[in-house]
Design goal:
Elements: H1 5-16, H2 21-33, H3 39-48, H4 56-63, H5 74-94, H6 104-115, H7 129-144, H8 148-163, H9 165-185, H10 187-196, H11 204-209, H12 218-229, H13 235-246, H14 248-251, H15 257-265, H16 272-285
Helix pairs in contact: 5-8, 6-7, 7-8, 9-10, 9-13, 12-16, 13-16
């Protein structure tokens, strides 16, 4: 296939003046306009390029299977899911599990428990770990999306993927890779964290299990979830690595596990915006997915 000189010139011009994503956006628009959306191509796009916020709701719905790839079925599926959601919500109101003051994350959790046949007569003193993860995911995703109905189904599918054995079994491997990469990227920080016992106490399982929903700003979490939803669990390793490297100076001053945990509960706003960008660069440098 012969290269199109005009297209190459246009691409070079866009990149030079800061509009590198113009052609990528056009490609995504074409993908999403197809009567049958090519799932593999859509996954590849999201893994390779930044996902414009305008397209995020639809792309997530398709990648998570909330909407089918066949666009002619969308109207029917949307109607069915709206009815299903309202039926579940009404049932919970009748059974007095929720009321007008219930938060969306709490409503979603009750629906999730009802779907799994786990509704209890009384609130437990402490949620199961999987339910704690669900609430964390639900809290963050309700801040991102506006459509209540589809926010619930997105939450359901994303949480389901994070509970799959394949993902859970990959977490110890990801933690091992994180330690290896940290030793390469920042030997000083690695040695300090190893000697103080902080390295072995990092809350990596929670970081990976919630895809950083609980500690990073919304704009960062959206970009992280883009990659995870498109199929890259490995991306989480580089986010964790960049998180440590970005705050290396502060972490070198912490000498105990309690101080480390407290630090990550109250992350400084400085440098957080660039964290995912740098993590993406590292991830791509190491061969992506």
């Amino acid at each position: 296939m012969v290269d199109d000189p005009q297209r190459n010139f246009r691409s070079h011009y866009y990149e030079k003046v800061g509009f590198r994503g113009v052609e990528e956006k056009k490609s995504l628009e074409i993908l999403l306009k197809e009567e049958t959306i090519a799932l593999n191509k859509l996954q590849t796009f999201v893994l390779r390029f930044p996902l414009p916020a305008l397209f995020r709701p639809l792309v997530w719905k398709v990648l998570l299977g909330v909407l089918p790839v066949h666009k002619d079925a969308h109207e029917f599926v949307i109607k069915q899911k709206e009815e299903q959601y309202q039926d579940m919500k009404h049932a919970l109101v009748v059974m007095r599990y929720i009321n007008n003051s219930s938060s969306l994350p709490d409503i979603f959790l009750k629906m999730h428990q009802m779907e799994e046949g786990r509704l209890l007569l009384e609130e437990p003193e402490e949620l199961l770990p999987a339910d704690q993860t669900y609430v964390t995911i639900a809290t963050r995703i309700t801040e991102m999306m506006e459509d209540e109905v589809f926010t619930f189904f997105l939450c359901e599918e994303f949480h389901r993927r994070l509970q799959e054995p394949k993902f859970k079994e990959s977490i110890p491997v990801m933690i091992k890779r994180l330690v290896q990469y940290l030793q390469t990227e920042d030997q000083t920080l690695y040695t300090h964290m190893l000697n103080t016992g902080i390295l072995g106490a990092l809350p990596c399982e929670r970081w990976f299990g919630t895809c950083f929903a609980h500690i990073l700003p919304e704009v960062c979490v959206q970009r992280i979830w883009d990659k995870v939803i498109a199929g890259s669990h490995r991306f989480l390793v580089f986010v964790a690595l960049q998180l440590l490297v970005t705050f290396s100076r502060q972490l070198l001053k912490i000498n105990n596990v309690e101080g480390m945990l407290q630090f990550f509960c109250n992350l400084p706003a400085d440098n957080v915006d660039m964290l995912v960008t740098k993590a993406t660069e590292l991830w791509q440098k190491q061969g992506s997915p």
